[in-house]
Structures are given as C-alpha cells and as structure tokens.
Design goal:
39% of the residues lie in helices and 18% in strands. It is α/β, with parallel strands linked by helices. The mean pLDDT is 96.
C-alpha cells in the first residue's frame, strides 16, 4: 500500500540529511504541516535542536494579506519555531528528495484564537469556555475556517491536503499539564461536557424545539451522578440517551451533526475552488458523528460523497475503517493512520501485521505518525516493515 509519513517543517529545515532520511523509509509521500496547533515536540535527529516549542496555533507560511485584510478573525503567523515560509522551504527540500508533498491543516483547534476572541469558543452547560475549541456553528468562525482551509491546503507544489479537526472540538484536548482525568466521563459524559451553549448554539437548539435554559439544566442534572461516581457514563449513544433523555439527546445531535456536515462541505468546496485539477482532499475522521476532536465525527456516507477520502485512527485496532469501507465508494481513499512512535503508544514492531489487518478491513493507504518524532530504532522497524510489504 501507498504510505505517507507525517512531518513538521522544523523536522526538515536546518537538517540537510532529513529529506533523504525520510525518503529512505520507503514512503512515497509526506503529509507536511502547513497550519498547526500549539505543541512541544522532540526532534531527535536535528543537528541544531532537540525540542521545538510552538507557542500557539499558527500557519507555517506567510498568509496572504489581501485575503485577511479587515478581518477580525485571521490566522497567526508562527514565531521563531517556524519563521518565514517554513512550510515552503521544507516542501521544496522533500520534493527534491522525490517525495510527493501533501499539506496537513489543523482547523477548529486554536487556543490563542479563543483567548483573544472569547466569543468564538465552545461554552459548556456550566458556562465554562473552552478556548481551544472554536464553535463551528458560528457564521464568522465558519467563514474563517473555510478560508484558512483553502489558503493553508493549497500551497505551491502540494498535490493534496489532509484536513484535521474539521468539526466539533470539545472537552478532550490533551492540554498541557492536563488535570481532567479525575472522573471517568466515558463516551456519554464527554458528549455532555462538549455540548456548546454559546448564543448561536442556544438559538440552534431552539430551532430543534429545545428550550436552551431547560436543556442546560438537564445536562447539569444528568452529569451530577457522574461527578459522584454513582452512575456509568459509557455505553455510546445509548448512554447519552439514558443520561439526558432521548428528546434532548437527539435534538442536540441533530443540530450539531448538521453544523459539522455543512462545515465539512464548505471547507472542502473552498479547497477545491482554490486547487488545481487532481488535488486530493482527505479528512481526518471518526465514523461516529457525535464524537469530537482531531478526528472529526462524520457520517461515513456523507463525507465520502464530499471528500476524496478519509484518514482513520487505527493504532488501537483498525475497526473504525469498517463503516467507511461498507460504503463501497470506488476510488475513495481509506488511509489507516498508525502511530509508529513507541514512546507515544505506537507499535512499529507490528507495523507489517497492523497494515495487513487494515488492508483486510478496506484500507487503501497508510499514514505513519510521525517521522519527525520517532527514534532511529522505531524508524528502522518502519523501514523494514515497508520493505517487507
């Protein structure tokens, strides 16, 4: 199967050996970050540094002033961790090594945006804001995300893009020094804690026949036994319905699913309008539409009618591929995303077997997370697995 490795520009820029090293893994493609959230990342082979701290979500290229002139919401340029056209510099070096370059674009995940524009954030039923999670129902936020998708995805020389966080973000964040794991919220509790009660979403619930004040009170009441540890909060969607009641649960899901679907349609359309013919558009996706996070919850039939395919998390098992494969869409890309960094829970030593299992379940391509973060030992195992396959 065709394989692509995820890479950051700072993995490549300043390291003349990096492009050939990545190409030597046996991948045909790299998925190179063009717009990314804040992070602290190791660079275990770089000759100039070992840790890179990206202080806030930023684009890793110079944004077009004309596109953003007069706009309240606009992308932030990176600081010294990715100066100038860091993406373009890395992309040119990787292409020179014979690799096909696709952009990696993170959309609805931006803590600085939420800090500087609090009204854009998801607000939970208790009134707490999630600055890392832009509310994707708000018209101004949706317009910003669509334009960001188009600009960051269609960089010079790119042959395609992969859009991450193209949907709802919620409580789960992997925040620095996170202390939110003291109560096991489970799938249902995560959903309830991720429902947005910003003014726009309150209006949206009203269109579903739900009084937003009564709904917020119902969410808080449903969570009380969860906080006490006296009620389970797992059980998937049935668990949400049990905690909140079917009417409230289905009304909130109808509103949120529609907002996510139309955002995905708008973002993909914006990319296609800016892209050359043959440009591939994939989404990082979870086949359960009410799920939040980097792998946006989607309806499999819908998303495969909109995008060219999906990138699906498969490190813990490839079962999430099945709902997409069952759609039987000819030509759709189903990329199995496998973590190959052993220190992050990856299994580079079983990559060949995991890839074969993913292919049996419908995968057409592989994504390897992450060439820049992995040790030499992990990548030696990747190299051997790709050669064997």
């Amino acid at each position: 199967m065709r394989a692509s490795a995820f890479v950051y520009p700072w993995d490549v820029n300043g390291d003349p050996a990096a492009p050939e090293f990545v190409a030597g893994l046996g991948v045909e493609q790299v998925t190179l970050a063009a717009a990314y959230h804040s992070t602290r990342a190791l660079t275990p082979r770089h000759p100039r540094h070992r840790v890179v701290t990206a202080e806030y979500a930023a684009v890793l290229y110079p944004p077009d002033p004309a596109r953003w002139q007069g706009r309240d919401l606009r992308p932030y340029e990176a600081g010294d961790w990715a100066p100038g056209d860091a993406y373009g510099e890395a992309a040119a070096a990787l292409a020179q090594a014979g690799l096909e370059v696709h952009t990696w674009v993170v959309l609805a995940h931006n803590s600085r945006l939420g800090a500087e524009h609090p009204r854009t954030s998801v607000v939970n039923a208790y009134g707490d804001r999630y600055p890392w999670a832009p509310c994707v129902a708000q018209p101004t936020t949706r317009a910003y995300l669509a334009d960001l998708a188009a600009e960051a995805a269609v960089r010079p020389g790119a042959r395609g893009t992969e859009l991450e966080s193209a949907g709802w973000y919620g409580l789960a964040h992997l925040h620095a020094h996170d202390k939110t794991g003291g109560v096991g919220l489970g799938d249902a509790g995560q959903y309830l804690m991720s429902l947005c009660f910003c003014p726009h979403c309150r209006e949206g619930y009203d269109t579903q026949g739900l009084d937003p004040d009564e709904l917020a009170a119902a969410v808080r009441a449903a969570l009380e036994p969860v906080w006490r540890g006296s009620a389970p909060s797992d059980g998937g969607w049935a668990g949400v319905e049990k905690l909140l009641g079917e009417g409230y649960a289905n009304g909130t899901r109808a509103w949120r699913d529609e907002r996510a679907r139309t955002l995905q349609e708008t973002a993909v359309a914006a990319v296609r309008a800016a892209a050359p013919e043959g440009f591939r558009v994939l989404l990082h996706a979870d086949p359960v539409s009410y799920h939040c996070g980097a792998n946006a919850g989607v309806d499999p039939a819908h998303i495969l009618s909109v995008a060219d395919g999906v990138v699906v998390p498969c490190t813990g098992g490839a079962g999430l591929l099945t709902p997409f494969a069952e759609q039987g869409r000819d030509g759709a890309v189903l990329a199995a995303n496998l973590t190959v960094v052993s220190g992050m829970g990856g299994r580079p030593d079983t990559l060949a077997a995991d890839a074969a299992r993913a292919e049996d379940l419908g995968a057409t391509e592989l994504r390897l997370y992450h060439a820049g973060l992995a040790s030499d030992g992990d990548l030696a195992r990747v190299r051997a697995a790709l050669r064997a396959g």
